[in-house]
Amino acid sequence: MSTGPGKYDAVCTMARELTDAQTVLLIVLKGSRGSGFSMQSTAGSDSTAIPGLLREVARQIETGEET
Question: Nearest 5 degrees, angle CA 46-CA 48-CA 19?
Fold first, then answer.
């Protein structure tokens, strides 16, 4: 994973600050700057849960299950 700001880093920062979240993962499809993603974690947050969460989200999207 790369470090440093990406093309959607400013939007990711806004989401993290507005939600007072420890970790934010922003996925953009066909946005104004193309497709991409940005992830931010505060010091001490546990971002190791992200892969499992993404697998669960993918499963729910594939099965049409609502959360």
Answer: 50
